[in-house]
Design brief:
Number of helices: 3
Order of helices and strands: EHEEHEHEE
Structural class: alpha+beta
Radius of gyration: 15 Å
Helix content: 25-40%
Strand content: 25-35%
Low-confidence stretches: none
Oligomer: single chain
Mean pLDDT: 94
């Protein structure tokens, strides 16, 4: 079974701060762009080192563990979309390929961290 395992030592911005709106136009904010660039650079480095490969157009299961340093309450679903959107086009073609998501958050962690496992459910 093909899978990708990642540890990211930065908390993703919530969807409320990742995207902005001006009229009918939606855009990625400066904070969102910094995080997206960070993820893209990290993933491209791992790909060039041969540590990960794209999963193409396979059907996928994504498991996410979010560790937050503080005790501020956070809506788990607000972080999943932004994180998964950063993987699009690098680890897989489109987030429509994801058939199954499991996620859990933890508070009072020693540092902000995201652990992600992406598994192929069915190759095309």
């Amino acid at each position: 079974m093909k899978k990708i395992e990642l540890e990211i030592y930065e908390a993703p911005p919530s969807i409320n701060t990742f995207y902005g709106h001006t009229g009918n136009r939606r855009y990625i904010t400066a904070r969102g762009r910094r995080f997206k660039d960070y993820i893209e650079n990290h993933l491209q480095t791992l790909k060039s080192e041969g540590k990960i490969v794209s999963l193409g157009d396979a059907r996928l299961k994504v498991e996410v563990l979010l560790y937050f340093k503080g005790k501020r309450l956070r809506d788990l679903d607000n972080y999943l979309k932004t994180l998964i959107d950063c993987f699009k086009g690098i680890l897989f073609i489109d987030d429509e390929q994801i058939d199954w998501i499991e996620a859990k958050r933890f508070y009072h962690a020693p540092c902000n961290k995201v652990c992600v496992t992406i598994r192929v459910l069915k190759a095309r």
